[in-house]
């Protein structure tokens, strides 16, 4: 892994039965362009594989999605809405086979201007410990897709990329 690869890798902090995942990416695009990709139904469609998305763009609004390779149905309240700087919402998913407890997490996207670029900080809080290990390579793969979308390049196949990244995020237990 090169130094650049290491800086793109997500970090995990375990807190009892839950975990916080954090990713930081510097994207060579203005915050407004990144915002459109992460906070609009049209922007989420490709990189996050959203077959359905409804975003009531305001603090207190509702966000509903069917997203990801598995088509998880989520619904939650928008906790922070400050375009093009901060988007934070509840990610609530009912129990499914791979997430037997369901999820009641908080997803946060912070965009910080850096000259002509944007530092994107993605923080997923309150992910169940069981789910977190799969979310590390999964989120990394989704962020690779986001970068390709912003660059106008073909998006990497999520399943293949997830498989490639598994070795970078070995399973952990405690």
Would you give an account of this structure?
- The protein is an alpha+beta fold and 174 residues long.
- Helix content is 30%, strand content 39%.
- The chain contains 5 helices and 8 strands.
- Strands 1-2-8-7-6-5-4-3 form an 8-stranded antiparallel β-sheet, covered by helices on one side.
- It is globular, with a radius of gyration of 15 Å.
Q: What labels describe this entry?
A:
174 residues; 8 strands; 5 helices; 8-stranded antiparallel beta sheet
What is the N-to-C succession of helices and strands?
Answer: HEEHHEEEEEEHH
Span between N and C termini?
Answer: 26 Å
Number of strands: 8
Largest pleated sheet: 8 strands, antiparallel
The oligomeric state of the chains shown is single chain
How do the strands line up in the largest sheet?
Answer: 1-2-8-7-6-5-4-3
What shape does the CA trace take? Answer: globular
Count of DSSP H/I helices:
5
Portion of residues in helices? 25-40%
DSSP strand content:
35-45%
Radius of gyration from the CA trace? 15 Å
> Which residues sit in consecutive blocks of at least 5 with pLDDT less than 50?
none
